[in-house]
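mind reviewing this fold:
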Amino acid sequence: MTASTAPEAVSTTSDATADRRRVSTGAVGENRPRLSLRRRRARRRYLIKSVALWLLAVLFILPFVWMLSSSLKQNLAVFAIPMQWLPHPVEWLNYAEVWLNGSPSMAVFFSNSITVSLLGVVGDLTTSAMAGYAFARLSFAGRDKVFLLYLATAIVPNQLLLVPRFMFFQQVGLYNTLWALILPGIFTVFGTFLMRQTFLSLPAEYGEAARIDGAGEWRVFTRVYLPQAKATLAALGIISFVGSWNDYESPLIMLSDKELFTVPLGLTRFVDADGGLSAGYAMAGSVSSVIPIMIIFLLFQRHFIAALASSGLK
C-alpha cells in the first residue's frame, strides 16, 4: 500500500511543478511583448527629447558662431547678403588691432574689468557668507525683522540708485575711480539670501557639538559651516563675476577717463561719433570678452550645478 502510493504522490508533485512552470513561462511570454513595447516607447521619447535639446542648443549657439565668424571678416563682409558663415579671407589682424593698437587697447579694458570683478567677488563672498551666517545661526533682537528689511531693498531697481551713488562718490572723492564700481558690488541682497538659505539647510547640531568642545562662534563659522557651503560659494562667485564683468551702466555713469574703462564700455570705442560701426573689430572684442566667463564657468560648473540642486533654485 505504501509502495504504491509513493509513486503516485511523486507523479502528482511533478505534474504540479510542470503546470507551474508552464504557467510562469506563459506569463513571462505574455509580459515580453509589453516590456518590449514599453522599451520602444521609452527609446522613442528619449530620441525625441534628445533631438529637441540638440536643436535648442544649436539655436542658442548660433549667435556666438556668427560673432566668431564675423570677428574674422572685413567690415563690409560682416553684413553681406547672403550671410557667409565661413570668412574669406580670414582677417586675423582684427584681433591684433583690438589688442595691440588703439588708445587705450583692449588689454587695458581687460585689466580694469578683471580688477573690478575679482575684488567684487571676494568682497561679495565675504560679506554674504558672514551676513548669511548671522541671519541663519545667530540669535539677536529683531533678527528676522532686520532680514526682511534688508531683503526688501531688492525691490528697488538698480537704475534708481545710479544717481545717488554718483553724487555720493563725487562728494567723497571716489568718482572716476575703480572703487566706485567695486564697493557697490561687495554687498548684495541675493548673496546674503543665498548663503542664509544654505546655512539654514545645514544641521544645527554641528554647531552645538563644536560649542560644547569649546569652539568660539568664529571658529564654528569658519571651520564647521563654511566648508560645507563651498558649492554655494562657487555658484555665488560665478554669478557675481558675470554680473560685474557684463555691467555697462555703472561704468558709464561713474567713469570718464578712458584709461579706466571696463570691457563693456571699452567696446564702444569701435563706434564713431556718427554711429558708424567697425564691425570686425567690435566682434573681435566681443569674442575676447566672452572667453573669461567661459573659463570661469568651465572651472566651477560642477560646484555651480551642485549648488543649484542643493538650494532648490530653478
Q: What stands out?
A: The mean pLDDT is 82. Residues 102-311 form a domain with the MetI-like fold fold (CATH 1.10.3720.10). Residues 2-70 form the longest helix (69 residues). The two ends are 79 Å apart (CA to CA).
